[in-house]
Amino acid sequence: MNIFRLAGDMTHLASVLVLLLKIHTIKSCAGVSLKTQELYALVFATRYLDIVTDFISVYNTVMKLIFLGSSFSIVWYIRHHRVVRRSYDKDQDTFRHYLLMIPCMLLALFVHEKFTFKEVMWTFSLYLEAVAILPQLVLLQRTRNIDNLTGQYVFLLGAYRGLYIFNWIYRYFTEPHFVHWITWIAGVVQTLLYADFFYYYFESWKNNVRLQLPA
Amino acid sequence: DKMNMRKDEL
């Protein structure tokens, strides 16, 4: 475990906690894309299939349970909580996320490390996570005033995979392991998708103005 | 042996 990996995991944890905090305390999911949350729940469900078969460490198992639990509870909150669901803007959150799942599944069926169920599912989760933020970014462009917590959530979510890239670079030079090129490419694509968000997020922070993405 | 490192990552 190197500092980049730990920072990445803590940033990821912070992102889900910020979102849970927002939804649980102010009972509002305004500006939050349910589609992205559903995609993330699917990402974790397909990536952590080995949670019962392969024990890596207590940390690893605990973090997997936290990410699974938080992503599914966020989906539940937005869909079924009698107060939160009223603040969900389904007319704006219209990204057809099935159009993301299908190509990712097809790509995983053709481009993977080895053709086993767990491996294809894991590869699918990598591809899906790379594009899972798209419905949320589209919604942010439509939502005129992005509240701070939602902006922080997206920023932290984008930063975690960026830190993982440093982790892979660090491990590449210090350990006799290798990172499969699929992991590299999916991680870099995912981080690049946040590039314009990061730019506008930094600009709004620097000029101390409310974050707004150009339509 | 080259274990693929992703096994221990999240």
Key features of this structure:
heterodimer, A: 215 residues, B: 10 residues, little secondary structure, 0% helix
Note down, in words, how this protein is organized.
The complex is a heterodimer of chains A (215) and B (10). Chain A is 69% helix and 0% strand. Chain A has 215 residues and is mainly α. In chain A, helix 4 crosses helix 5 (117-131). The N and C termini of chain A lie far apart (40 Å). Chain B has 10 residues and is largely without helices or strands. The mean pLDDT of chain B is 65. Chain B contains no helices and no strands. The interface between A and B is medium-sized, with 24 and 9 residues.
Summed up:
The complex is a heterodimer of chains A (215) and B (10). With 215 residues, chain A is mainly α.
The whole-angstrom Rg of chain A is: 17 Å
Let me know the number of strands of chain B.
0
Largest sheet of chain A: none
Low-confidence stretches of chain B: none
- State mean pLDDT of chain B (0 to 100 scale): 65
Pfam families (chain A): ER_lumen_recept (PF00810)
Transmembrane segments (chain A): 55-78, 98-115, 121-140, 152-170, 182-202
Organism (chain A): Lactuca sativa
GO cellular component, one term (chain A): endoplasmic reticulum membrane
Q: Secondary-structure blueprint of this entry?
A:
The complex is a heterodimer of chains A (215) and B (10).
Chain A: H1 3-25, H2 34-47, H3 58-80, H4 98-110, H5 117-131, H6 134-142, H7 148-174, H8 181-193, H9 195-206
Chain B: no helix or strand
Membrane topology (chain A): Multi-pass membrane protein
Protein name (chain A): ER lumen protein-retaining receptor
Pfam families (chain A): ER_lumen_recept
